[in-house]
């Protein structure tokens, strides 16, 4: 198993972040928001569970899902300058929507019972009219990133999220045949699990205040918690402000778009012209446009 890659953010973010994101499908930003903010978030989350932090006998279920939290500490966590800069680097300036809340918290408790939600999958990002399950398509409709926010200390023993490193490149060929309509996570789950089975494993461990920014197609899974400390995390989307484009005439691709093209190119006809196979550089690694492509490019 390999360790989760991390990106320093004491200087300007740059090509190292983009390269790591393209290769692995995620970057870990340590200290993305202050530990004190994480503590405040955790206190509010405990209230939602109805459990007593000091009394393990009260931790009745292996996982408690909390939907949306819009109190100040959650808005503060997602709006740190370092995260905004990273969103610009990976998604592109003006191409993502600011958020003022966080959602989708799988709070995992040490438990003998196995959770029923620990299969390999990618996230659904939109609910088509009349559909029962969330869907994903090749252009990652609505979702720019999957984000993992840590609110507790997460060691190997605390049920960290399992990540298949580089699996975001296996998913575009699975999605391509479904076109714009996409497919539900139920249909896609077994296919993306099979396509990424040989990828090395990483675990989303870290400290309160660390954030993993993941490509929306990163294949990941929960795991049973047989440790001692509850694991508090959020896994919300970063929403797109403009749809992803996979065929830009000016080549001004974001890192998220570029990775999708790279995933497609790995199964494409090797005789196809280079530009058509996604082998050009993303705009974010062009030294002339160091950080992010312009909005609506
Ligand atoms: O709880 C976790 O570690 C991951 C949960 C997850 O990926 C999900 O249920 O979508």
TrEMBL record:
Biased composition (Basic and acidic residues): 264-274
SUPFAM superfamilies, A to Z: Clavaminate synthase-like
Pfam families for the chain: PhyH (PF05721)
Region span, Disordered: 264-297
Protein name: Phytanoyl-CoA dioxygenase
Organism field: Streptomyces pseudovenezuelae
């Amino acid at each position: 198993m390999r360790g989760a890659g991390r990106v320093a953010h004491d200087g300007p973010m740059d090509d190292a972040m983009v390269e790591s994101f393209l290769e692995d499908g995620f970057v870990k930003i340590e200290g993305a928001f202050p530990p004190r903010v994480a503590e405040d978030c955790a206190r509010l989350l405990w209230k939602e569970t109805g459990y007593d932090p000091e009394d393990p006998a009260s931790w009745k279920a292996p996982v408690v899902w909390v939907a949306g939290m819009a109190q100040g500490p959650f808005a503060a966590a997602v709006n740190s300058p370092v995260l905004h800069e990273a969103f610009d680097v990976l998604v592109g300036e003006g191409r993502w929507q600011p958020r003022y809340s966080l959602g989708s918290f799988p709070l995992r408790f040490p438990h003998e019972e196995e959770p029923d939600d620990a299969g390999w999958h990618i996230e659904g990002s939109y609910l088509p009219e009349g559909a029962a399950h969330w869907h994903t398509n090749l252009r990652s409709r609505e979702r720019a990133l999957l984000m993992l926010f840590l609110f507790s200390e997460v060691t190997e023993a605390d049920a960290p999220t399992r990540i298949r490193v580089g699996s975001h490149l296996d998913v575009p060929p699975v999605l391509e045949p479904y076109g714009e309509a996409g497919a539900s996570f139920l249909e896609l789950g077994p296919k993306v699990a099979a396509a990424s089975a040989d990828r090395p494993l990483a675990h989303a461990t870290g400290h309160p205040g660390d954030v993993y920014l993941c490509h929306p197609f990163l294949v990941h899974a929960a795991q049973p918690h047989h440790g001692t400390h509850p694991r508090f995390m959020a896994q919300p989307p970063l929403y797109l402000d403009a749809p992803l484009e996979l065929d830009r005439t000016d080549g001004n691709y974001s890192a998220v778009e570029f990775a999708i093209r790279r995933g497609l190119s790995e199964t494409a006809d090797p005789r196809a012209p280079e530009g058509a196979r996604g082998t050009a550089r993303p705009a974010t690694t062009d030294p002339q446009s160091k950080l992010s492509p312009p909005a609506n490019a």
